[in-house]
Design a protein that fits this description.
This protein is mainly α. 44% of the residues lie in helices and 9% in strands. It contains four helices and two strands. It has a two-stranded antiparallel sheet.
Length: 113
């Protein structure tokens, strides 16, 4: 089931106003442009024909950007499935923290696996 609004819709609706108010770095502008044009006529498309009934379906090309939710949804699903297979079936928490530079020698000496 497709959601009523997607990120690309939001970018197309409000992107121009955002560019007028905020000076985005070139990379962010490029990514927003790719997401806005993903799976639209802007990137072209291709024709798919059914071998059995001859039904023709047209599909627009995707942008392939790593930040695009449409393009990365399948990769994310596979990553989550793989993560679930390799995770112990117990309640746990993943914590990331930073230690002071002075403790680097101690951390490097005591290797945890």
């Amino acid at each position: 089931m497709r959601p009523e609004f997607e990120l690309a819709d939001v970018i197309r609706l409000f992107g121009t106003g955002l560019h007028a108010k905020v000076q985005l770095p070139p990379l962010q502008q490029k990514v927003l442009g790719k997401i806005a044009g993903c799976r639209t006529a802007a990137l072209g498309g291709h024709e798919e024909v059914c071998d059995h009934c001859g039904t023709i379906r047209y599909s627009y090309n995707s942008c392939g950007d790593r930040h695009c939710p449409k393009c990365q949804a399948a990769k994310q699903a596979f990553w989550i499935d793989d993560l679930m297979l390799n995770t112990l079936p117990i309640k746990h928490y993943h914590i990331v923290f930073t230690v002071p530079h002075q403790l680097n020698a101690v951390c490097l000496h005591t290797k945890l696996s």
